[in-house]
């Protein structure tokens, strides 16, 4: 389309051949969805979609083997990679040597992005995945926000409060988490099929921001990413190809892009060396994505009645399989010269109860002290209010060092703990209760209701819940019902059955309505969420992902958004 051509009869996106945009037209979004940016995304889609389909089929094949009784194991074929001492990941870029505390949050709303960047954290991970409901509006506004954040021009005017938000003098370094390989983007079609969601997220952000990022906060490197939900090194190999293609098209050096991989699936813990090896030119370490890891443990062992989890509140880092996972991640990262990042502190400040707030902060301090003593180089927080306490713990232990990658200290490294397959698979211990079933249901329903309404990061009962914790609630209920788990009901043993869940859902829906108020309950999508959550908990086969099953409920197509402009 010629740049000086007369305006089309209606606003629409200027798309390259084979690309259709089905999301609502907005002039701000059009500045992101340019012809060149969409051509870049389409190129990624066309080159890598076959590899992604193959990787997803291999995931399904592996799950079928687990259902038949096979256990995840270290792969004998890649033993030379694990045991070889002659390779290391590329040196850590100076801009991200210090990652002692990182804050996470959705890429939209805009005010939240500014607050996170100004929070005092070393890094802000802007999320297009578990903390974001992937509506068209959220995804595109998130891209606008990140473009402006990298440019240093992001501002927000809160008219109701008469307050203006803008970046401070030392904002956090930006990492971006695209969606997982399994999630589609139904508003963007390439050759008639939905694009792979993470390639849309990565492609649009990289295309618009790589130059400004490298010349600014990246100090010659970047952009920086977090990569979620991988199960095997073949999936890391696809990301390697994506990065190399992007670097080549942008004319920047190989290894400029860096990414931290979230080890948040049980199969991936047996592939950590292999994942780092694939990404060794682009690696920024590994992260203990512990909430999704618990979800994956249940999903992997969904057919095993001997692997029932206790109440989710009891599945913490003191459990042997969780502690072993953390230790092996630390050992693996430090052996290969990269950061070993700790897990999420999901607490949020309790403003109306000083004693309860201090008790919650003390739990955070103890958890973070455990992490830094174990050898972690940094950790995650869900709320700015936690950052001073976490920084004090990590900086006090590190004594002026930016990380402990090269240090011999750290419980896991100093003790020389040899983590075995059996350590990583040891069933967790603890009670299973009707109250646990109730809490799962209450949290799960409220999260789904918020997600359907466009919010992916939801404060519930003094914790910041995202899709990962909602997934634990869902799959644990399903697991207990599937295997008829014995639950403690105040000293009386009852069996988990669909009838029990139906009664619990009815009672917890009434409780939620009382807590949020009748008007908000009526206007929200709580009833719909209750039906979805109940259906997923009682399904004959466990759905892979709550968000994948419910995704079509938030897709809104505007078929004329791109086609009228095509010549």
TrEMBL record:
GO CC, sorted alphabetically, is: glyoxysome
Q: Which residues form the Malate synthase TIM barrel domain?
A: 173-426
- Spell out the Pfam families in the cross-references: MS_C (PF20659), MS_N (PF20656), MS_TIM-barrel (PF01274)
Catalyses which reaction(s):
glyoxylate + acetyl-CoA + H2O = (S)-malate + CoA + H(+)
Q: Which GO terms describe its biological process?
A: glyoxylate cycle; tricarboxylic acid cycle
Which EC number(s) are documented for this chain? 2.3.3.9
Give the location in the cell: Glyoxysome
Instruction: Provide any one GO MF term from the record.
Output: malate synthase activity
**Keyword annotations of the record:** Glyoxylate bypass, Glyoxysome, Peroxisome, Transferase, Tricarboxylic acid cycle
Q: Where is the Malate synthase C-terminal domain?
A: 432-554
Q: Which residues form the active site?
A: 177, 466
What InterPro entries does the record point to? Malate_synth_C_sf, Malate_synth_sf, Malate_synthA, Malate_synthase_CS, Malate_synthase_TIM, MS_C, MS_N, MS_N_TIM-barrel_dom
Task: Tell me if Chloroplast is a UniProt keyword of this record.
Answer: no
Under which pathway is this protein filed? Carbohydrate metabolism; glyoxylate cycle; (S)-malate from isocitrate: step 2/2
Domain Malate synthase N-terminal: from-to ranges: 17-78
Query: Signal sequence: where?
Result: none
Q: Does the keyword Cytoplasm apply?
A: no
Q: Name the family.
A: Belongs to the malate synthase family.
Q: What is this protein called?
A: Malate synthase
Q: Which organism is it from?
A: Oryza glaberrima
Its ancestry begins with:
Eukaryota, Viridiplantae, Streptophyta, Embryophyta, Tracheophyta
């Amino acid at each position: 389309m010629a740049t000086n051509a007369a305006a089309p009869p209606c606003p629409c996106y200027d798309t390259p051949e084979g690309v259709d945009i089905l999301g609502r037209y907005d002039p701000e979004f059009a500045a992101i969805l340019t012809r060149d940016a969409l051509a870049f995304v389409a190129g990624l889609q066309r080159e890598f979609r076959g590899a992604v389909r193959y990787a997803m089929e291999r995931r399904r094949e592996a799950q079928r083997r687990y259902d038949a009784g096979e256990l995840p194991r270290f792969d004998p074929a890649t033993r030379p990679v694990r045991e070889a001492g002659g390779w290391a990941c590329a040196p850590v870029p100076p801009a991200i040597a210090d990652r002692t505390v990182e804050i996470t949050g959705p890429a939209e709303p805009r005010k939240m992005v500014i607050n996170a960047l100004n929070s005092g954290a070393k890094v802000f991970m802007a999320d297009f995945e578990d903390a974001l409901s992937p509506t068209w509006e959220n995804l595109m506004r998130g891209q606008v926000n990140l473009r402006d954040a990298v440019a240093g021009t992001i501002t927000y005017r809160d008219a109701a409060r008469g307050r203006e938000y803008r970046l401070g003098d030392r904002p956090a370094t930006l990492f971006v988490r695209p969606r997982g390989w399994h999630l589609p983007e139904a508003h963007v079609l390439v050759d008639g099929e939905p694009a792979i969601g993470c390639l849309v997220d990565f492609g649009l952000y990289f295309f618009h921001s790589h130059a400004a990022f490298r010349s600014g906060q990246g100090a010659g490197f970047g952009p920086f990413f977090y990569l979620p939900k991988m199960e095997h090194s073949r999936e890391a190999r696809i990301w390697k190809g994506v990065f190399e293609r992007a670097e080549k098209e942008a004319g920047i050096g190989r290894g400029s892009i860096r990414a931290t991989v979230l080890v948040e699936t049980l199969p991936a813990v047996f592939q950590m060396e292999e994942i780092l090896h694939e990404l060794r030119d682009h690696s920024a370490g590994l992260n203990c994505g512990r909430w999704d890891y618990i979800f994956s443990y249940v999903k992997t062992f969904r057919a095993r009645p001997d692997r029932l989890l206790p109440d989710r509140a009891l599945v913490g880092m003191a459990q042997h399989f969780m502690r072993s996972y953390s230790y092996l991640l630390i050992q693996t990262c430090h052996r290969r010269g990269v950061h070993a990042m700790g897990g999420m502190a999901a607490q949020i400040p309790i403003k109306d109860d000083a004693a309860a707030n201090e008790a919650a902060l003390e739990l955070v301090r103890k958890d973070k002290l455990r992490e830094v003593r174990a050898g972690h180089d940094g950790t995650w927080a869900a709320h700015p209010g936690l950052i001073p306490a976490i920084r004090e713990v990590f900086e006090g232990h590190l004594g002026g060092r930016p990380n402990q990658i090269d240090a011999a200290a750290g419980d896991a490294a100093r003790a020389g703990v040899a983590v075995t397959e059996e350590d990583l698979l040891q069933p967790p211990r603890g009670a299973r209760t009707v109250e646990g079933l109730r809490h799962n249901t209450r949290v799960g329903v409220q999260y789904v209701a918020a997600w359907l309404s466009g919010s992916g990061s939801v404060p519930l009962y003094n914790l910041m819940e995202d899709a990962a914790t909602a997934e634990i609630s869902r799959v644990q209920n399903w697991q207990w019902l599937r295997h008829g788990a014995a639950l403690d009901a105040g000293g009386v043993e009852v069996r988990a059955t669909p009838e029990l869940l139906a009664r619990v859902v009815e009672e917890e829906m009434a409780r939620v309505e009382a807590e949020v108020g009748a008007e908000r309950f009526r206007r929200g999508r709580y009833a719909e969420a209750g039906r979805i959550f109940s259906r997923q908990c009682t399904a004959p086969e466990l759905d892979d992902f709550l968000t994948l099953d419910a995704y079509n409920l938030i897709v809104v197509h505007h078929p004329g958004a791109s086609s009228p402009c095509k010549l």
